[in-house]
Design brief:
The structure is a single chain. The chain has a domain of 96 residues. Strands 1, 2, 3, 4, 5, 6 and 7 form a seven-stranded mixed beta sheet that branches. It is globular. Helix content is 15%, strand content 25%. The termini are far apart. The chain is of the alpha+beta class and 149 residues long.
């Protein structure tokens, strides 16, 4: 029996661990959102991380990425309407001496052809109307679809 599965949507996604000093080419498939708070067994609990669904253009994989706090602040400043549909080159830079946080280099890039095809399909799979969410590459994402609050 010949069977070819038709995938409807990703329920789970692997976490993309960004190695410091390596440039990643990412397309945001969702807005940034707060992860779940995990209780620490040894010491005070940390605040839940900011996450986002992305496609890694070099591998083609859809991943969830943990957004470091400095990167989160820069993205909110650069894209106040949201990041869904934005494509970036991202490099995490190790902390400077005496500092305990990572820096980052962020460069907006043109959406590759593969993203222009993947983005609307992914929005539909996640139950979002691509016409009601941000436009690919416009840097004009919205955390709440238009007309809904």
């Amino acid at each position: 029996m010949d069977f070819t599965p038709v995938k409807k949507r990703a329920i789970t996604k692997q976490t993309l661990s960004m190695t410091k000093g390596v440039e990643y080419y990412l397309g945001f498939l969702s807005e940034m959102f707060l992860g779940e708070k995990v209780e620490s067994k040894s010491g005070p609990s940390k605040e839940p991380p900011q996450l986002a669904d992305v496609v890694n253009f070099e591998t083609g994989e859809i991943n969830q990425v943990i957004i470091p706090s400095v990167m989160y602040k820069e993205l909110v400043k650069a894209f106040p309407a949201g990041v869904n549909g934005v494509c970036l080159a991202v490099t995490i830079i190790p902390p400077r001496e005496g500092k305990n946080y990572n820096l980052c280099n962020l460069t907006e890039i043109e959406p590759p052809t593969q993203f222009m095809t993947l983005w609307p399909t992914y929005q539909q799979q996640q139950g979002r109307d691509p016409e009601q969410t941000s436009k690919v590459g416009a840097g004009s994402g919205t955390s709440v679809p238009k007309g809904k609050k």
